Amino acid sequence: MRKLLLFLLVTSALTVKAQDEKTDLDIINKIIKEGTANSQIMDIAFHLTDVSGPRLTNSPGYFRAANYAVTQLKKWGADKAGLEAWGDFGQGWQLKKSYIAMTAPYYKPIMAFPKTWTQSTKGLVKADVVVINVKDSTELAQYKGKLAGKVVLVNRVDEYKHSFKPDANRYTDDELKKMADFKPNPQPQGPGGNQQNFARFGAAQRLNTLIKQMITEEGAAAYLTSSPASHDGTIFVQGPAGNRVDFTNGKPSVLEIAVSFEDIKTINRLVNMGTTVSLDLDVQSEFTGSDVKGYNVIGEIKGTDPKLKDEVVMLGAHLDSWQGSTGATDNASGCAVMLEVMRIFKTLNLQPKRTIRIALWSGEEQGLLGSRGWIKNNVGDRVTKDVKPEQGKISAYYNIDNGTGKIRGVYLEGNSAVQPIFAKWLEPFHSVGASTLTLQNTGGTDHISFNELGIPGFQFIQDEIEYDTRTHHTTMDSYDHLVPDDLKQMATIVATFVYNTAQRAEKLPRKEMPKPAPVRQ
Fold first, then answer.
1. 0.85 exceeded by pTM
2. Which of 122, 152, 167, 422 has the fewest CB atoms within 10 Å, measured from its CB?
């Protein structure tokens, strides 16, 4: 840690400029020192993961984590810290028990995890396995009347592929240079070769929907699924196929179970060779709570400048996770970073000119529901682009949601006007690998909700570590996969960006407001 601290500290006392851009290097040094020498980030992460448990939206684990975050924000002296409803989500859900084993032709524990919002078994259930082997929906009729009380899986033709790449990696200089050299394509893309892939994917999805419907109507005991990525002890597990709104409002899915690739292929081969495969299943879960509202965690540090205090700099991360583990890299890491930023601000008694607002979102895993709900309530309509006064007050939103890897730079989301500004802000962090700016967009997380209404929203470039190979939406996403020094680096960079944004004479430059969605005739 001492080496990291000495490496980070900025020795120059000179101000840096980009179009009259100024930064306070004395404050930046204090942020770096507090965020490294006195970091509390791993303790925060421990409470969000091991102590809270899985954080599916509206589950007991989610509220344990949310209430912890509110308590800490209040303890540090943040203003307006609390839970804020964003709209309807549905009931919470939690797993109470899971036992799955093959009992014939021999005993074998099955590595598996029930998907979210699925039904329980009625105690211990013993059932044989049926493999559905069809090319299209016209062949499904042969299974009618044969699935009641059975465990069902769809025939697997994919094969295990050995990987000779490391599970964990960091960006190389060449990869970062390619990102920095990226040039947006101003021309809209026309039809391409991917249309056939999309068509095949759509046909497969429609067939899977019909299979799931038949399994449900026939009264199957369970539905087994897998992915080639669920290998070597890691299981990728999310929600079941179907309508999440139905599942969280009193219509749970048939019991759907994610199984390791090795185990599902073993079962598949045995059944296809004519062997009777029997399973024991005892899965117990429950829907929780009567309040169907979804809640975000919100807290503030009030601005001090009489002219700028009503303007806002926002930072955030999604607090919810899937059920398969405790969501350490997705996204307790991001939440711990943002909470640590708030702690650093209050510990150093920083006096931001603009108000700082933290938001820890729920419902992100189901489609950015918490951030989009907050935007709708406070900022405007993402479809019509009708906006409220708050839209003009938010200078920027900074998001973390790419795992535990340290920051290597920023995705600018096509906002070239901020490039020289951010380049100067990153200068103190070149020595720890953060120097890349790319005009590329990156999707799938909550900064999108802000960009949709013309507010500069940014996601940081992060080293992948094991995010895509081992932890993202898997049973392995636990505290042990966090990298402490990387999280500390992230907190100091985010704190610096938030502080610099709060102190600027002007809000950050904006792109043109996106156009409203076309009205369908």
1. yes
2. 122
